[in-house]
Specification:
disordered N terminus; binds alpha-D-galactopyranose; disordered C terminus
């Protein structure tokens, strides 16, 4: 294995770190100043689907009341403070026909006050409103699509005060019109002059015909779905993770401030995932720098799921300003190790136990595998974030790290690298660890000065 810091000395390691900090080869993002970190909010689809029966099921049908209630709860129950900002309508909000001027209209029975009123309501609570449309002639559920009406519909959304558009890809004529449609809606939104976040499904619908060009997609969309719809099940979550890992070479470089891969909604707080599987979804969506759209019923959610979804440390990883998506580092029997570079030379590391039989399993691995060999070079402080927060202490680049993970669960860690106080081409990491067990380090990432040198004891060296 290639560990630059180990084989070529700390100066090389430092130069490599500088490169990491300067950022990757991101293509230009859609220039609307939005989604500089992954979008956070609530989206009705997975939990409420196309329930239009307000007679039989008034509490759960797609109606203005549902979104108003969610907006109220997002403010009163700490969701807004945790960062969840967009209240989003999915399919099935429309009337079956456009009005006589050709403009879209909401279903008059279920949205009697209209979308502009709903947007005002959501805005008055300090939140933003998202809406749904489709690039083709009909939405996936069969309501009028935007094909042929891109400019008109974008202007309608802007006039209503909409802040986000989820643009689906059902019922398009051919590949050219799919691609042109996604581009046209992007410029139509831009032309309105209103800041409207643009959430696409372009690569998902394109992939059966051709490999998506992410450099291009990033120029038009703030995030994009790559894979099929999420369901409320472990099978669905694990399939999305496996697919993402299998395509990570093209997906990971595509993500960055302004444009993100979207592995679909968080289904935490519903019926299908065990506690450990909910932890896995939250941890891995943070590693993947995924938009966090909860699709659950905020009126009925367990305190445990709520705490997980509002966990500040996981959200901070998801929202990390460096804006680099993580990746699967290794698969080792039943364990997957994922890592994500974070700002201030920190790393998030997730260890997932895929096994669906038995009890908790121990997994031990060398810290030298982490962060391209630099995560713990020469030392790092490790905090466990999930399933519960716990300080694990200081490790060096030759430490063994041992975690215990429940079946289908994940242990999420944050590593803070400590660098040696003085760098010289004469010092090698071997000198550091062999002489004695206590060293001085800068807390380099917090821009420490020499006054801030901390003395640390290196634990758990081999
Ligand atoms: C597609 C999308 C889903 C949802 C439905 C609505 O399947 O991928 O996320 O929007 O359409 O009909």
């Amino acid at each position: 294995m290639d560990h630059p810091g180990q084989e070529r000395g700390p100066m090389f390691a430092f130069a490599a770190l500088a490169l990491v900090l300067l950022g990757g080869p991101w293509a230009t993002a859609l220039d609307n100043g939005l989604a500089l970190t992954p979008t956070m909010g609530w989206l009705h689809w997975e939990r409420f689907t196309c329930n239009v029966d307000c007679i039989e099921d008034p509490e759960n049908c797609i109606s203005e009341g549902l979104f108003m209630q969610m907006a109220d709860i997002m403010v009163s129950e700490g969701w807004k403070d945790a960062g969840y900002e967009y209240v989003c309508i999915d399919d099935c909000w429309l009337a079956s026909k456009r009005n006589k001027n050709g403009s879209l209209q909401a279903d008059p029975k279920r949205f009697p006050s209209g979308i502009r009123h709903l947007a005002d309501y959501v805005h008055s609570r300090g939140l933003k409103l998202g809406i749904y449309q489709d690039v083709g002639t009909l939405t996936c559920a069969g309501y009028p699509g935007s094909f042929g009406y891109y400019d008109i519909d974008a202007q309608t959304f802007a006039d209503w005060g909409v802040d986000l558009l989820k643009f689906d890809g059902c019922n398009f004529k051919d590949v050219e019109s799919l691609v042109e449609g996604y581009k046209s809606m992007s410029s139509a939104l831009n032309k309105t002059g209103r800041s409207i976040l643009y959430s696409c499904e372009w690569p998902l619908y394109l992939r059966p015909f051709q490999e998506p060009n992410y450099t291009e997609i990033r120029q038009y969309c703030n995030h994009w779905r790559n894979y099929g719809d999420i369901f409320d099940s472990w099978n669905s979550v694990k399939t999305i993770l496996a697919w993402t890992a299998s395509k990570q070479e093209s997906l990971v470089p595509a993500a960055g401030p302004g444009g993100w891969n979207d592995p679909d909604m968080l289904v935490i707080g519903n019926f299908g995932l065990s506690w450990d599987q909910q932890v896995t979804q939250m941890a891995l969506w943070a590693i993947m720098a995924a938009p966090l759209f909860m699709s659950n019923d905020l009126r009925h959610i367990s305190p445990q799921s709520k705490n997980l979804l509002q966990n500040k440390d996981v959200i901070a990883i998801n929202q990390d300003p460096l804006g680099k998506q993580g990746y699967q580092l290794r698969k080792d029997k039943d364990f997957e190790v994922w890592e994500r570079p974070l700002s201030n030379l920190a790393w998030a590391v997730a260890v997932l136990n895929q096994k669906e039989i038995g009890g908790p399993q121990n997994y031990a691995f060398s810290t030298s595998a982490l962060g391209h060999g630099l995560g713990c070079s020469p030392a790092c402080y490790i905090t466990q974030i999930l399933p519960v927060k716990e300080d694990l202490g200081l490790y060096t680049w030759i430490s063994q790290l041992k975690v215990r993970v429940n079946p289908t669960g994940t242990v999420l860690l944050k590593l803070q690298t400590y660098q040696q106080q003085e760098y010289s081409s004469h010092t090698s990491p071997d000198d550091l660890v062999s002489s004695n067990s206590t060293y001085d380090y800068y807390d380099y990432y917090n821009n420490a000065t020499s006054d801030d040198i901390i003395s640390v004891t290196v634990l758990d060296t081999l």
